[in-house]
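Technical note accompanying the year-one report. For the benefit of new consortium partners, we illustrate the data format agreed upon in the data management plan: each record pairs a sequence with a structure-token string. No post-processing was applied to the example shown here.
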Amino acid sequence: MILDAWFIIGAIVGLTSTVVCVVAAVMKKKPNDVTLLALIAVELFIVAYAIGSIIRLANGEPLAGEPWEFWGYMFTAAALPVAGFYWAMMERTHWSNYVMSAVGVTVVVMLARMAQIWYGTGLSAQAAPALESLQQGLGI
């Protein structure tokens, strides 16, 4: 996988948000300004990443994978912080911080997949024969 600046910054923002929310949950704190701002930071990063991706595409940088898949991940990653925020507002207990902590790490995983789609670093041609023999061995 190619680690570009978008992924590195997104990983820092997402994992920081996760740590902030887990610490608040362990301390049995209700969702507060700090945890909600951590979630908002994830959302703002995804919006910036979407705008940056549109600019990259407009400047002629190719997308190696399927565009619908990339934008599907982007839309889902943008919807997760909104859903976590809504959950925190509806259920004002320390358990909401655990839900919000899952958002950050989930977005990081989705960013890794988006990087694979962007740069086309999925299953290599060298790994395909090994996968086929594994499938035969499993009877698939």
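Partners are asked to follow this layout when depositing records. The chain is about 75% helix and 0% strand.
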